[in-house]
Amino acid sequence: MVSLPKTYFFMLAKMSFKENLLQKIELERLAVKVIASLGTEQARHRVDKEAMGRLLALSPYRHQQERDLDLYIREVEGEPGMILVLDNELPIFRSTVDDVVIRRSPRTIEMWKISSIRKILVDSDIKVSTRKESVEAVLRDAVALLDLAYTEADIKNLAREGMAWLEGRDAGGVTETLGLFAALLGLKKIPKNFALDHVTGYGVAAPGPGKEVVFRPLVLYRPADNTLLWIDKQFSQTDRQQMKSLHSIAAGKSSVPVKGDAVFEKLQTEVLEHPERVRAAMVCSLRSC
């Protein structure tokens, strides 16, 4: 069983469905930011420790300073704990604090002990993961703490909030609500190569020919004139005619039948009528989030 402060459990118990979903989105944002900072195996960079620290602060890992090491520990009843070392490798070990400290920050006297030499030289016997895999593990553990169960009333309230933001021309509120529905339905942000400047867009991504990704449908929000659109057509970045049509719609030069409040009604229906999609979207893995 994970050991967490009672105040943390109290905070989680008080959070609404919307707050839990917003926290999931924030956790995934932080994880993506950390992974982006790692670079590649061929060109490794310094880890974004600030973002990783914020991710860990929202997880079941508790901080403990030992020597020059920042350790984050997830205690498991009846088993060795999981210990992450906050450095550029982000290793997670299944062992004790004393064991990890000797291996990662040995003192001179420990380096001369026969019992310590092998531990210092080899840590594969206790290492569980490093780098991206460690970030994914922390993310999964953090998301597992959230109550992401919802009722029909929760989804209807979310849609009503979106409509109210739209009526009030509150771009921030509309954008946040769209992000929540996107998280529920597993919608992906429209890639930059679609060249839709000053537009917030999400869609259902699917494999196309070769390595291509196609989107259908799309949800577009244009804050400049408070326009919200549902476009039930397929779009591929390599299809010039489709891109021309999409840019015409996004610029307000072509119309679509579903717009305004009807878009939030459509998103509400998609969530309530397709719970299997929501279940898939709620399973958090950076390979699918």
Description:
It is built from twelve helices and eleven strands. The protein is α+β, with helices and mostly antiparallel strands. It folds into two domains: 6-144, no CATH class; 152-282, no CATH class. Strands 6, 7, 8, 9, 10 and 11 form a six-stranded antiparallel beta sheet that branches. The chain has a five-stranded antiparallel beta sheet with strand order 1-2-3-4-5. α2 runs antiparallel to α7 (131-144) and α4 (97-104) packs across α6 (114-121). The longest helix is centred in the first third of the chain and has 21 residues, at 17-37. The two termini are 26 Å apart. The mean pLDDT is 90.
Strand residue percentage: 15-25%
**Number of DSSP strand runs:** 11
The chain-level mean pLDDT equals 90
What class do helices, strands and sheet pairing give? alpha+beta
Low-confidence stretches: none
Largest sheet: 6 strands, antiparallel
| Order of helix and strand elements from N to C terminus | HHHEEEEHHHEHHHEEEEEHEHH
Query: What is the domain tally?
Result: 2
Q: Rg from C-alpha positions? A: 23 Å
Number of helices: 12
Oligomer: single chain
Give a summary of the structure in a few sentences.
With 289 residues, the protein is of the alpha+beta class. Helices cover 47% and strands 18% of the residues.
Relevant terms:
289 residues, alpha+beta, 2 domains, six-stranded antiparallel beta sheet, five-stranded antiparallel beta sheet
List the helices and strands and how they pair.
Layout: H1 6-14, H2 17-37, H3 49-57, E1 62-66, E2 69-74, E3 81-85, E4 92-95, H4 97-104, H5 108-111, H6 114-121, E5 127-129, H7 131-144, H8 152-167, H9 171-185, E6 188-189, E7 200-207, E8 213-222, E9 227-231, E10 235-236, H10 240-250, E11 258-259, H11 261-273, H12 275-282
Antiparallel strand pairs: 1-2, 2-3, 3-4, 4-5, 6-7, 7-8, 8-9, 8-10, 9-11
Helix pairs in contact: 2-3, 2-7, 2-9, 4-6, 8-9, 8-11, 9-11
